[in-house]
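Ticket 4471: requesting a sanity check on a complex prediction with Isopentenyl phosphate. Repro inputs:
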Amino acid sequence: MSDRLMLKVGGSVITDKSGDCTINHQQLESIAVSIARAIDGELLVVHGAGSCGHPEAKQYRINEGVTRGYAEGISITHYAVSKLNIAVVTALREQGIDAIGIHPLHVAYANDRKLVSFEYRQLDQMLKLGMVPVIHGDVVMDHKRGSCIISGDQIVRYLAPLLGMHRVGLATDVPGVLDGGAVVPVITPASVPSLQIGSSSHTDVTGGMKGKINELLDLAKAGIESEIFHVSHISDFLFGRDCSGTKVSMKG
Ligand code: IP8
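Returned structure tokens:
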């Protein structure tokens, strides 16, 4: 691995989504070991919230907007996902990786649930220094709604072009995008309307697999192909090998 890579790890991979902020430390350790063995060039990690943030975001209806007097859900949700971020950073650092947590609430701004700014110059410098920034889906302040939830997938879509990522991979708890039980090898803007994509039974305020695909199609339109694969293929992604997953691309 010698390129500049972005790896998104789904919240359902590193937490038990049926529990209340139940962090899967064993999975985190195994991911950190895979990364430590493969790391060579520059790597930025993004992770989702799973059961550390989605239940809180739902309970306080953050995505419906926040008004004065009803803002406590912002800090409660941010605290929940920050706990998970600390666990991810700790697992990576225990394997000798110079990981550092970056919180979107501090550096990003949204309008009507869409990111309109994200300070990325410090991320660029960190990557050049061999550090591994670890960013997460978060609650951020929103011009129209007061506040909103920004998914890790939206962060991937926003930052990957700005940081000139060479490859983008998304590790999930499924082998790829499933249609009728089989992995769809490639998704393009033309093929997506004919797909039957299931939805998750767990609390997910940011749109699950459908939300992910929409962000990745936008990323493909911006010139960056991505791949969704099972978490067991993280090493393959980092080494540039086949991940047997779903590529999201402009062409099939
Ligand atoms: O798990 C959601 O991020 P995602 C972030 O990537 C929060 O959708 C705080 C619910």
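Notes from triage: Residues 11, 48-49, 53-54, 57, 77, 81, 137-139, 149, 151-153, 205-206 surround Isopentenyl phosphate (CB under 6 Å). Leaving this open until the requester confirms.
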